[in-house]
Automatic annotation (TrEMBL):
Pfam families: HSP70 (PF00012). This is Heat shock protein 70. GO terms for molecular function: ATP binding; ATP-dependent protein folding chaperone; unfolded protein binding. Residues 597-624 form a coiled coil. It comes from Hanseniaspora valbyensis NRRL Y-1626. PROSITE patterns: HSP70_1, HSP70_2, HSP70_3. Keywords: ATP-binding, Coiled coil, Nucleotide-binding, Stress response. GO terms for cellular component: intracellular organelle lumen; mitochondrion. Belongs to the heat shock protein 70 family. SUPFAM superfamilies: Actin-like ATPase domain, Heat shock protein 70kD (HSP70), peptide-binding domain.
Length: 635
């Protein structure tokens, strides 16, 4: 068993209490969720549509309206090129990355190269960073929490895949900042799930493996839980493996089979058809976790000279398992590496927790059972555990939860480039956070007065095979023979896994440093611009909502008047009745205009003024009726 962590260390690592409510957000590739602590219990908050998870989908209509979540997903088939999904797979990535180039071929929207080399997306001719799109989803989660709590929310704990690198973590924090969220902590998804699992077990101890196969990423973490301390021992994974890949495998098969059965008709360039197939593939994948076969029926998918064509295909669970077997096998090696790094065998693991929607697939469960030699636990909800764990960590930071401490690790080794392009590690992977490490280096040439410090993240021995995450130059070194100057390089990593690197010449006391938001990320100016854009949309959305509410009120009001007029028409004053009916016709036209996509605030104001006129005239009309009725009763 592992050495226990001393209580003094724990107290030192406890965060200072924050002011205000802290929400926990699972910003997922496919779906997102938000939770809050109610006393000592985390609670998932339902969105406006009554669902406990929200699709991580953002769409832009032709009229410039932005849709997020279920409304965005519903219209994807008719607007595929402006519907953004699975953009988390692009967050913090360079456009030239192999994974990004692969994604370009698989999605209906445009992935473009930003001026700094990052992968961005395009919709309706506007370019957005993946962090900005994530921000729109985070904002939806924020609004969901605010509606439930009936108060503004500023603080959040947001989860990320454990195998996210520094650029991806920083981009996730940027996403929160864009929508005005103070992201107190970025927590690894499997660690958050372990918190949700272990909250009621703070007096128990043991080793837990969290197998997290979600919509776009795969993580495996090994943790030791003892007396409320959750200590991550190792983590591994693949940031480009998840349910989206399973959908794509089935989608490709359907397209190929259709081509074969229909004289070579290729649907792959028909964006609307591909989006219909994508949605059907996702539905079939989910169904095959609980049934042995399913049918995919898509009428009128296309047409040629011989008439309309339809997709009618049957898939068995066995067919699907064979199709995605290579993807499932990709999960095995990271699990073995995680156990090796933690210094344990599968027999020493007490419990295996399944997280992420794909962990429901029977073949995945069977694979996990083979890897770890035991039946996985079903103690947590795979879709909700991560958000609940984030809320628990939020409770810890707010001082509401006092008997839990989280000790996470850095997922990848960190170091610098030394002579010959060698990667010299300063911080090995799976080092507990926060951490600080220094090492002394020297110059490679005589008379050298400056050194460039190039910071890399990865596990390969040469820097060319690892990821450059930042670089800076230390100048003003006094000229000396090579090997004489002493340059101290220090790595400092905070609890979010954000890295600060500094270099200091011990002779001259000259120093330089960098916080690695890195070569791949957003500038402060870009973040400010996005914050302003988010505010602009917020006002637009609020104004549009107000106009729609007035239009709905108008519909209801005139409907009520029309019913009363129909019932009492013979008894009403003809002149007043004509005036009221003219007003109703005018209001109906104004209502149609207010409900159109290009309506403005002025349309709402005009409609409201007309409604008041109608109410005044209707009062006079029906007043006469009630007087007459009163007179009849007296007689």
């Amino acid at each position: 068993m592992y050495k226990s962590t001393s209580r003094q260390v724990i107290r030192r690592l406890q965060s200072t209490k924050v002011q205000g409510q802290v929400i926990g957000i699972d910003l997922g590739t496919t779906n997102s969720a938000v939770a809050v602590m109610e006393g000592k219990i985390p609670k998932i908050i339902e969105n406006a549509e009554g669902a406990r998870t929200t699709p991580s989908v953002v769409a832009f209509t032709k009229d410039g309206e932005r849709l997020v979540g279920i409304p965005a997903k519903r219209q994807a088939v008719v607007n595929p090129e402006n519907t953004l999904f699975a953009t988390k797979r692009l967050i913090g990535r360079r456009f030239d990355d192999i994974e990004v180039q692969r994604d370009i071929k698989e999605v209906p929207y445009k992935i473009v190269k930003h001026s700094n080399g990052d992968a961005w997306v395009e919709a309706n001719g506007e370019k957005y960073s993946p962090a900005q799109v994530g921000g729109f989803v985070l904002n939806k989660m924020k609004e969901t929490a605010e509606a439930y709590l009936s108060k503004p929310v500023k603080n959040a704990v947001v989860t990320v895949p454990a195998y996210f690198n520094d650029s991806q973590r920083q981009a996730t924090k940027d996403a929160g900042q864009i929508v005005g969220l103070n992201v107190l902590r970025v927590v690894n998804e499997p660690t958050a799930a372990a918190l949700a699992y272990g909250l009621e077990k703070t007096d128990e101890s043991g080793v837990v493996a969290v197998f997290d196969l979600g919509g776009g990423t795969f993580d495996i973490s090994v943790l030791e839980i003892a007396n409320g301390v959750f200590e991550v021992k190792s983590t591994n994974g693949d940031t480009h493996l998840g349910g989206e890949d399973f959908d794509i495998a089935l989608l490709r098969t359907i397209v190929e089979r259709f081509k074969k059965d229909n004289n070579g008709i290729d649907l792959s360039n028909d964006r609307m058809a591909v989006q219909r197939i994508r949605e059907a593939a996702e539905k079939a994948k989910i169904e095959l976790s609980s049934t042995l076969s399913t049918e995919i029926n898509l009428p009128f998918i296309t047409a040629d000279a011989t008439g309309p064509k339809h997709v009618n295909m049957k898939f068995t669970r066995s067919d699907f398992e064979k199709l995605v077997e290579p993807l499932i096998k990709k999960c095995i090696e990271p699990c073995q590496k995680a156990m090796k790094d933690a210094g344990i065998t599968n027999s020493q693991i007490n419990e295996v927790i399944l997280v992420g929607g794909m962990s429901r697939m029977p073949k995945v469960v069977e694979t996990v059972k083979k890897i770890f030699g035991k039946e996985p636990s079903k103690a947590v909800n795979p879709d909700e555990a991560v958000a609940m764990g984030a809320a628990i960590q939020g409770g810890v930071l707010a001082g509401e939860v006092t008997d839990v401490l989280l000790l996470d690790v850095t997922p990848l080794s960190l170091g610098i480039e030394t002579l010959g392009g060698v990667f010299t590690r300063l911080i090995p992977r799976n080092t507990t956070l926060p951490c600080n490490k220094s090492q002394v280096f020297s110059t490679a040439a005589s008379g050298q007065t400056s050194v460039e410090i190039r910071v890399f993240q990865g596990e390969r021995e040469l820097v060319k095979d690892n990821k450059l995450i930042g670089n800076f130059t230390l100048t003003g070194i006094p000229p000396a023979p090579k090997g004489v100057p002493k340059i101290e390089v220090t790595f400092d990593i905070d609890a979010d896994g954000i890295i600060n690197v500094s270099a200091k010449d011990q002779a001259s006391d000259k120093d330089a440093s960098i916080t690695v938001a890195g070569t791949s990320g957003l500038t402060d100016a870009e973040i400010d611009q996005m914050v302003n854009d988010a505010e602009k949309f917020k006002d637009q959305d609020a104004k549009r909502k107000a106009v729609i509410e007035i239009a709905n009120k108008a519909e209801s009001t005139i409907s009520g008047y029309e019913s009363s007029i129909a019932e009492h028409r013979e008894k009403l004053d003809a002149t007043l009745l004509k005036e009221v009916e003219t007003e109703i016709t005018a209001i109906r036209e104004l209502t149609a205009k207010a409900l159109s996509e290009d309506s403005t605030e002025a349309d709402g104001e005009a409609l409201e003024a007309k409604l008041k006129e109608l109410e005044t005239k209707s009062m006079s009309l029906f007043e006469q009726l009630y007087k007459n009725a009163g007179g009849s009763e007296k007689k």
